[in-house]
Please model this.
Amino acid sequence: MSMIVYSDSPQAGQVQLPAKLRQYYDRNLLENAVEELLLDDYASQKSLPSFTGDGIRFSRYERLPNFDTTPLVEGVVPDSTPLTKTDIETVSQDFGQYIRFTDKVMVAHEDGQRLVKVMSDELGKSAGESQENLLFAAISAGSNILYADGATSDAEVIAGLKKITSNDMKLARLALRNQIAKKITSVIKGSTKVGTQPIPATYIMFAHPDVVADLEALVGWKPVETYAGAGGDTLKGEVGSLDQFRVIESTLCPVDTTTDPNTPVYASFVFGADAFGRVSIRGRKAPQFIFKNVGRGGSEDPLDQLGSSGVKFSHAATILNSAWLMELHSTSSFS
Model:
């Protein structure tokens, strides 16, 4: 079966259907596929108050060393221990896009007033995935990378077609544990992002479906179907567990096809609590929909011909502790 892509103003790769063929069609519009938004649930959420600028600073005090094994000497003042503070700064930025339409479209288009809802729905899906992609981009900026199966670079990963091994998972877990990365004990609850729900202490792994297909073959893989009390105890997007990681599957995990178009390199992420943060200006985390009907363009639209439907949001994200976040680079048997 072939499908025809058309628009009222055809662009490259599109065609305009003859009027006779457009007199009737099924008005039950097909839904566009959209990836479930998952990574944001594990970000440390911060809200930037209004009217305080667009920058925010995260701060943490580094761990003090353990006491010296040398006992105190009576009357002798020992050297003081410095208290070290680390600041992480980031800036909130605005992102958005809009769809322009004409007065004729609003009165003559086959979908009529439904077109307004279609525009808002599609803009909302695009905004959600854009937020998730920006968050993945932020955590990809770290330098704590483990290359699969003993490789030391992406070039070696590609040359050896390296897949993630059970030993890689153990190395990743030990790296987090030795840095005293705290396990995650709660996640943001529900799509409304209100409140949290407790979960058994765990580290989290995000992986592309192609990588998950390889993980399923490793010794110790446990699919969610085998969990005791499966269903209510599983996380959103969770497909299984391995070692001490609960694995979340997402097609939005970065895939590098520029180094070698024939051999994609997949980035998977393992992390503990408070490894990265997500910032929004208070009241503007959710996408803001902006609809301007025909006739609201002022002097720039003197004949009331143009309208638009758009969406924008404010976003900032950053790694808070790179030692608690590790990126695994691998190929896949299924790419």
Remarks:
- The first helix runs from residue 103 to 108.
- Confidence is low (pLDDT under 50) at residues 1-6.
- Residues 146-273+321-330 form a domain with the hypothetical protein PF0899 fold fold (CATH 3.30.2320).
